[in-house]
Structure prediction request, 473 residues.
Amino acid sequence: MAQLWGGRFTKPTDELVNEFNASIRFDKRLLREDIEGSLAHAAMLGRQGILTSEETAQISEGLRGILLDAESGRLPITEEYEDIHSFVEANLILRIGDTGKKLHTGRSRNDQVALDMRMYIRRETAAVRAELDELLGTLLSIMRQNTETIMPGFTHLQKAQPTTLAHHMGAYFEMFRRDVTRLSDCRKRLNECPLGAGALAGTTYPLDRSYTAELLDFDRPTRNSMDSVSDRDYLIEFLNDLSLIMMHLSRFSEEIILWNSNEYQFVELDDAYSTGSSIMPQKKNPDIAELVRGKTGRVYGALMSLLTTMKGIPLAYDKDMQEDKEVAFDAIDTTLHCIHLFRGMLETITFRKDMMRRSAARGFTNATDAADYLVGKGIPFRDAHAVVGRLVLYCIGQNKSIEELSLEELQAIHPSFGPDLYDAIRLETCVSKRLTTGAPGPEAMQEEIRECEAFLSAEQSGNPAEPLAGDRK
Prediction:
């Protein structure tokens, strides 16, 4: 196995130890980041006079050639190398000779891998954010089309008050909007460059860390060399952000699963995003929603794994930290796939508006408005609440909704009920009267939609409230 060390050792490493220690199998996805970081490091060494201009040019040309050949498949990344760093350096030396050995001047694998992971997470943060923007666009489209689509709102999974599908989708828009802003916050903290920290104590070479930070589009170099190589806070924070995204997708998936059931019949899933049963021919299963719900635990596991790994590690770098990559890579891949597939399912879903309204009408969702009606007649709310409670009990006994009762039946419960009650408790009236900020009434909902449009427009124009650096190219 090609290694970057060995002079101090008198016999070869046991092959099982090599396999256990190696990370090339999974860290090969850091190839581009490793080479971009090495190009910046070489440019800085040349600028500082540590490398000659000829050596800098030779190293840079060799690195670019390795990247081109590896990404095209002409240069396979095999497991004969310990990690992606040894792959790049060994091939550079093969191509340009001893000059390639000078690339590692003033650098350790510790600050090298810390740099690679920060650059990789920076790119993947941008990728997750782009997927979320697409999902927000889908939600906004549904909101625009369904400001008058009446449906029941729930608490404790029981029908509570009438709302609209636009209002319901707006709640998820807010969740995913917060996820976008959390990613932005995470990016601010991770966007510091650890290159030049060395193994833990910097270096005696006259490196210009601010220059390499600038070349790699970081805001600044990291402040403490020990922290630079041992910090994984940014990665834990990123995994926490992914966990929250998956939690929101899982909640949404649970509702889709419920709405798709025979008991609700609020939605019809597109055939392309459903599966059948091997034994029951009538089945149409919401597998995408169920898998998203299930894979949420997988992303949670990545977060807990890294938290557990880091909790007992003394300063500075320890090999335990190699365990950050596999769980992070899997969590990123899982989250990106889940957002993408969930959006496809949502874009093709059919909302059963008739069933939604019927469900709202049969669930006493207008009971609170009946109580508010009595308050308007001068009855204290607590007394009105008790009256409507008796009214609902009577309706249950008669198997009727409130609006199906005759005026005589209503007035037998309380004489303040008048014929104007019927309009007051119409579902459309119940919704339209709710005009406070954030409510489902038409004016409030249009204001919410305008605000959502402005947020998404800023995102898609590339001018968000918090600009990001190093987006995935």
